[in-house]
Write a structure and sequence with these properties.
This protein is mainly alpha-helical and 366 residues long. A two-stranded antiparallel sheet has the order 1-2. The protein starts with a helix and ends in a 21-residue tail after the last helix. This is Mitochondrial phosphate carrier protein 3, mitochondrial. Transport of phosphate groups from the cytosol to the mitochondrial matrix. Mediates salt stress tolerance through an ATP-dependent pathway and via modulation of the gibberellin metabolism. Belongs to the mitochondrial carrier (TC 2.A.29) family.
Length: 366
């Protein structure tokens, strides 16, 4: 009886993952006949006819929601965010300059032309080091803590309510993770923007960070933290909740084969597609705050009021938006593709899937 009660308490809500070794209903009588421990428990107090049990752990496999699992998710987040943001440094550089100086950088094409003429090809990758380090740290916290908080809030809600209100679980888990992730990102983001938008300020991180601290003070590195939260928290909430929802809908309505029967390449394709669509939504939601972050980190002593006055409300929502949609859509799709590829590489299931109906359980007889 103790075994049965503990099994029920340790259940993970079924919506979190659909795996080839997903939980199934087993007939208790069959299990009892073949297991001395269960046979003893049954003879002492009886048992329900059916109940759910966790999937067995396979030797050499990473157990779901174990410390090794969260460590793997953290490494996957580091890779997917750091590498993708570094790869789109040229787009990010043009976007930031369009936000800061729209007179000089009037469009995407002219922006690339101006940068190429003034700084050469090497200029397109200015600020890549703080970009790589900052977004690697952010990705580690974002994905690692998202998996942790998603499980944590699911446990608080219980299986029934966690499945019923899964969107709220996604939103709460991603917001909690991003609060931590932005603290890790903020210093590198401040240096990156200054290096990219002020030619001659510094060559990169090695001389840019000391110069920034000397000019603004150590706390100046966090001057843009609140606007960064304003940009990244809605962005991440949209990123994770929309991705999980889109992937679920793809498996439910667009793909006739159950997820666990799909090839890994197809599952990774779904991850990329879901990530790309989610990225477009993320860019639109977070763009005004992105303009604020660029403006505040570019000018010493600048305030949010100065940014709104300078950019105007329309400019705050639209300046640099088309380029950011392309950049964030591609980046987010690539991130989910890399993240799930790493999870598959270490033996974990890809993220998201069709939500199974909650399994009914019959109370055990005492």
């Amino acid at each position: 009886m103790a075994f049965i009660e503990n099994s029920r308490q340790s259940l993970v809500p079924s919506f979190l993952y659909t795996t080839p070794v997903s939980k199934k209903l087993f007939d208790v009588d069959t299990l009892v006949r073949g297991n001395p421990t269960l046979r003893t428990a049954s003879s002492n107090g009886g048992a329900s006819k059916s109940f759910m049990i966790p999937a067995p752990s396979e030797p050499g496999k990473i157990a779901m929601f174990s410390p090794a699992y969260y460590a793997a998710c953290t490494v996957g987040g580091t890779l997917c965010c750091g590498l993708t943001h570094m790869a789109v440094t040229p787009l990010d550089l043009v976007k930031c300059n369009m936000q800061i100086d729209p007179t000089k950088y009037k469009s995407i094409s002219s922006g690339f032309g101006v940068l190429l003429k003034e700084q050469g090809v090497k200029g397109f990758f200015r600020g890549w080091v703080p970009t790589l380090l900052g977004y690697s740290a952010q990705g580690a916290c974002k994905y690692g803590f998202y998996e942790f908080f998603k499980k944590y809030y699911s446990d608080i809600a219980g299986p029934e309510y966690a499945t019923k209100y899964k969107i709220l679980i996604y939103l709460a888990g991603s917001a909690s993770a991003e609060i931590i992730a932005d603290v890790a990102l903020c210093p590198m983001e401040a240096v990156k923007v200054r290096v990219q938008t002020q030619p001659g300020f510094a060559r990169g991180l090695s001389d840019g960070l000391p110069k920034f601290v000397k000019s603004e003070g150590a706390l100046g590195l966090y001057k843009g933290l609140v606007p960064l939260w304003g940009r990244q928290i809605p962005y991440t909430m949209m990123k994770f909740a929309s991705f999980e929802t889109i992937v679920e809908m793809l498996y439910k309505y667009a793909i006739p084969t159950p997820k666990e029967q799909c090839s890994k390449s197809l599952q990774l394709g779904v991850s990329f597609a879901g990530g790309y669509v989610a990225g477009i939504l993320c860019a639109i939601v977070s763009h005004p705050a992105d303009n604020l972050v660029s403006f505040l980190n570019n000018a010493k002593g600048a305030t949010v009021g100065d940014a709104v006055k300078n950019l105007g409300l329309w400019g705050l929502f639209t300046r640099g938006l088309p380029l950011r949609i392309v950049m964030i859509g591609t980046l987010t799709g690539a991130q989910w593709g890399i993240y799930d590829t790493f999870k598959v590489f270490v033996g974990l299931p890809t993220t998201g899937g069709v939500t199974p109906a909650p399994a009914a359980t019959v109370p055990a007889k005492v």
